[in-house]
Amino acid sequence: MNIDAWVWWLVGAAGLGIGLVITAMPELGMLAVGAVGAAVIGALGGDAVFQVAVFAVVSVALIAVVRPIAARHRAQRPQLATGIEALKGKQAVVLERVDGTGGRIKLAGEVWSARSLDTERAYEVGQEVDVVDIEGATAIVM
Fold first, then answer.
1. What pairs with residue 104 in β-bridges?
2. pLDDT tens-digit series, residues 52-94
3. CB atoms within 10 A of CB 58
4. H helices within the chain, ranges in order?
5. What phi and psi values does residue 54 have, to the nearest 5 degrees?
6. Residue 108 phi, psi (nearest 5)
7. Which of 11, 95, 116, 121 is the most buried (most CB within 10 A)?
8. What's phi and psi for 112, nearest 5 deg?
9. What pLDDT does residue 115 have?
10. DSSP state at residue 134
11. What are phi and psi of 139, to 5 degrees?
12. pLDDT per position as a tens digit, 91-136
């Protein structure tokens, strides 16, 4: 049984696709696309050297173009802060005296335990404070 070269390229592309799913390495997906390109050339009657050249050019081009774009997107901070990150920098109102050992504030409509960033400083009931950090379930204020 003689199997055409383009079938082998498709088998290789499928193997790379499976590797992509298992390892989550996007480069394997780009190599799989290169193998599909080589399979198309093989099915159209291109010789082995041309098939390998198409595989190499398509794969390298995808890696050279897509990887930097993906790295740039991965390095960017999300535009919208959520969860604890969204609370940092917000203002809160002191409900129970806050000092270096503890207290309570109202932050974003919820009651939080809080403590002063400066252990020597105390904030009295009704005073507005700024949240500088969140440690566990405790807001650090100043």
1. 96, 113
2. 999 999 999 999 999 888 888 888 766 777 788 888 989 999 9
3. 20
4. 5-23, 26-43, 48-75, 84-87
5. -65, -45
6. 55, 40
7. 116
8. -125, 150
9. 95
10. E
11. -85, 135
12. 999 999 999 999 999 998 999 999 999 989 999 999 999 999 999 8
Query: Which residue type, as a one-letter code, is found at position 98?
Result: V
26: number of Cβ within 10 Å: 14
Write down the pLDDT at residue 76: 79
Q: Bridge-partner residues for 110, per DSSP?
A: 107
Confirm if 141 and 131 have CB atoms less than 8 A apart.
Answer: yes
The tokens of 107 are what?
Answer: 């932050």
Confidence (pTM): 0.54
Q: The tokens 């409509």 sit on which residue?
A: 109
Interatomic CA distance for residues 125 and 142, integer angstroms: 14
Structure tokens, 108: 């974003």
